[in-house]
């Protein structure tokens, strides 16, 4: 039995056999092979090298005859790498000495090679990482042939173990088959984590090397509540977790009765609980979980799950479908928040030295005005079909906000000229997710209809800690006293100026912070739909004066530890049986 720790993204317990997802497209069924199969695996590798080389040679000849030798040269390079003596012998010795399967050994060595390229300072050489990935996939295709499997072909419940998942892989996971997950990568508010939370299955991320420690078929326990992954549990541990698994299902069922009840405090204040969505079909999930609408639609996932830039019609259809899903409830559509850890597929290797401080979000949209306008037109066109608000992400300066609004007006004029209907008075808002926007909130409030606080980014920029990097995730602390003070200041500004304020970072869906946020004056929360029932339960158990007392006290502490301990104690008094 081996116990590993990571960062929880969804609570609960799952027990099942593991499936290990290796290269981007391939699921490698076996990591190690019995001694008697070693020779066969070596032969398999050798024949994959031969057939991949012949295939590349054909591609080289083809391209060279059409476009000349220079253009075709890249295939020569691929042939060279595939036949490189050092790489080949590294792969062969993993098979011989460690009894790795040919596929697993190839994947391991090619991954190492990718890391070598990633570290190169010469951008031209760093670009070669894409080629190495391509080579890995080609070899795996030849090795696995018919046995190459993907996640679409799961036949029984499994725990999915992977290094990382792309947004489209995560979006297409079948939640009836994937009952739990663990990943090597990811911080608590990384976008993979956000997608996994939406999936709702117990999941732990940032578990160092999990994808190399588990083999396909190993029995694995995911304890999303205590942030543990247990590999090959002993009998006693297994029995204990089987019981916990059942009681978690009971707890989830119990929360179901809250669906049709309002989120209203025990002393009568109505609180709006909205859902965050990444894909249009999730809008209906929000309503299903008892939310009051969609408080954040992260449209960039449409872009990320697509091969390229979605057309105006594709966007229009997606937004209309989300609006239909809300069944008349309001929806806030956020314009593309691309860049940083949300790259388009074909741009993912345009590495920036500091992507979180780079050309991301509204900056990216304002740099690609044609793309931005297409999106604004699609949002405007669907605004007549429901109660739609538009929101700009990562606004730092008034100039940016004004430029974004000007582009929106240009898009309105386009539609007017084309005679297409839209809602001219659609509410326009912005995210407050940088210290600059928080500090200048009063000026911004004069120019928007609403603000939504994005604590995921706000915390990363206030505390100078990359939200997606598991190596620094212990420094990512939402309870930091400076974060609390910043939130208090923004809420006060909202109350003073009368601008509508909400909070849509992951913090909104964590019971630990519900009393604090209510006490600071928050009345609209937006969160992963799966978190709505529990937050509703808590809202209905408390009163505003009580929450205000909790917030006042929380603001007196000097360290994040004290804040967390205090909030946990106060929350447990109301929810003694729930995982906090
Ligand atoms: C945030 O930063 O808190 C937020 C809600 O936006 P995202 O997580 O998509 O960056
Ligand atoms: Mg953000």
Describe the structure.
Helix 1 packs antiparallel against helix 2, helix 1 crosses helix 6 and helix 11 runs parallel beside helix 13. Strand 7 and strand 8 form a beta hairpin. The protein folds into three domains: about 130 residues, Glucose Oxidase, domain 1, CATH 3.50.30.10; about 110 residues, Enzyme I, Chain A, domain 2 (Orthogonal Bundle); about 325 residues, TIM Barrel (Alpha-Beta Barrel), CATH 3.20.20.60. The chain is α/β, with parallel strands linked by helices and about 575 residues long. The longest helix has 30 residues. Strands 1-8-7-3-4-5-6-2 form an eight-stranded mixed beta sheet. An eight-stranded parallel beta sheet has the order 15-14-13-12-11-10-9-16. The chain has 24 helices and 16 strands. It binds phosphoenolpyruvate and magnesium ion.
Look up the CATH topology of the largest domain.
Answer: TIM Barrel
Mean pLDDT: 89
Q: Tell me the number of helical segments per DSSP (H or I, 4 or more residues long).
A: 24
pLDDT < 50 runs, ≥5 residues: none
3D shape: globular
Name the CATH superfamily classification of the largest domain.
Answer: Phosphoenolpyruvate-binding domains
Strand order of the largest sheet: 1-8-7-3-4-5-6-2
Short description:
This protein folds into three domains: 2-26 and 150-253, Phosphohistidine domain (Glucose Oxidase, domain 1, 3-Layer(bba) Sandwich), CATH 3.50.30; 35-143, Enzyme I, Chain A, domain 2; 259-574, Phosphoenolpyruvate-binding domains (TIM Barrel).
């Amino acid at each position: 039995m081996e116990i590993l720790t990571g960062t929880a993204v969804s609570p609960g317990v799952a027990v099942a056999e593991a499936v290990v997802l290796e290269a981007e497209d391939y699921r490698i069924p076996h990591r190690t092979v019995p001694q008697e199969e070693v020779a066969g695996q070596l032969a398999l590798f050798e024949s994959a090298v031969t057939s991949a080389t012949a295939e590349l040679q054909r591609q080289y000849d083809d391209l060279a005859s059409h476009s000349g030798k220079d253009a075709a040269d890249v295939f020569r390079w691929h042939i060279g790498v595939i036949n490189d003596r050092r790489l080949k012998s590294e792969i062969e010795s993993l098979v011989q000495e460690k009894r790795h399967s040919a596929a697993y050994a190839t994947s391991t060595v090619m991954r190492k090679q990718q890391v070598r390229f990633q570290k190169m300072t010469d951008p031209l050489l760093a670009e070669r990482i894409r080629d190495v990935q391509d080579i890995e996939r080609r070899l795996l295709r030849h090795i696995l042939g018919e046995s190459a499997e993907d996640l679409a072909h799961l036949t029984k419940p499994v725990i999915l173990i992977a290094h990382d998942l792309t947004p489209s892989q995560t979006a297409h996971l079948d939640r009836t088959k994937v009952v739990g997950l663990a990943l090597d990568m990811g911080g608590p508010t990384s976008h993979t984590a956000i997608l996994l939370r939406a999936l709702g299955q117990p999941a732990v991320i940032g578990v160092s090397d999990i994808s190399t420690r588990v083999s396909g078929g190993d029995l694995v326990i995911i304890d999303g509540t205590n942030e543990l992954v247990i590999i090959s549990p002993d009998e006693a541990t297994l029995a204990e977790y089987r019981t916990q698994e059942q009681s978690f299902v009971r707890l989830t069922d119990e929360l179901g009765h809250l669906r049709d009840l309002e989120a209203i405090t025990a002393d009568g204040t109505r609180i709006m609980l909205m859902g965050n969505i990444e894909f249009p079909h999730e809008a209906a999930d929000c309503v299903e979980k008892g939310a009051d609408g969609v408080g954040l639609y992260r449209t960039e996932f449409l872009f990320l799950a697509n091969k390229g830039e979605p057309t105006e019609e594709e966007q229009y259809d997606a937004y209309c479908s989300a609006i239909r899903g809300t069944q008349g409830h309001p929806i806030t559509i956020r314009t593309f928040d691309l860049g940083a850890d949300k790259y388009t597929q074909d741009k993912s290797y345009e590495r920036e030295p500091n992507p979180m401080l780079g050309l991301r979000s509204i900056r990216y949209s304002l740099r690609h005005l044609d793309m931005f306008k297409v999106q604004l037109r699609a949002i405007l066109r669907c605004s007549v079909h429901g109660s739609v608000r538009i929101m700009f992400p990562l606004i730092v300066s008034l100039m940016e906000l004004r430029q974004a609004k000007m582009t929106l007006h240009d898009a309105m004029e386009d539609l007017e000229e084309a005679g297409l209907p839209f809602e001219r008075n659609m509410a326009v808002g912005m995210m407050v997710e940088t210290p600059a926007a928080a500090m200048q909130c009063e000026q911004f409030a004069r120019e928007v209809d609403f603000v939504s606080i994005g604590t995921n980014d706000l915390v990363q920029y206030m505390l100078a800690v990359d939200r997606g990097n598991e190596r620094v995730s212990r420094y990512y602390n939402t309870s930091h006293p400076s974060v609390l003070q910043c939130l208090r200041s923004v809420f006060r500004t909202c109350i003073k100026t009368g601008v509508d304020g909400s909070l849509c970072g992951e913090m909104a869906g964590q019971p630990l912070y519900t009393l604090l946020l209510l006490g600071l004056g928050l009345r609209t929360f937006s969160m992963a739909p799966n978190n709505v029932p529990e937050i509703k339960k808590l809202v209905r158990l408390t009163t505003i004066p009580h929450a205000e007392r909790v917030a006042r006290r929380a603001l007196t502490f000097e360290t994040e530890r004290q804040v967390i301990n205090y909030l946990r104690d106060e929350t447990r008094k109301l929810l003694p049986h729930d995982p906090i």
